[in-house]
Amino acid sequence: LLPWCDQRSGAESLGAQLVEAKIAEARVLQTARAHEPLDLIQLRRLVMHAEPAVNWSDFGRLLWYWNDRAKRQLVEEFYLAKFTPAKGEKK
After folding, report:
1. What gap in Å lies between CA 37 and CA 2, rounded to an integer?
2. pTM of this prediction?
3. CA gap 6, 90 in Å, rounded
């Protein structure tokens, strides 16, 4: 995973960056539903496609504690970034 990620302090969450990279919702859910080791393989494919800039401490924590809760957090970040209107946007 690390070769496809750049370091940036204060970077957006991985879920938000997947939205910016136009990753399909189905691919994120497929990653969250997969069991090991396929879940990390799917995550690697997402990261390879998105090439995000991550904060190493946050991203490292996500990988170190990679379990159902971490997967859920990734999906929540994805949905919040996808469906929360931007500030100043007209409704």
Report:
1. 17
2. 0.83
3. 33
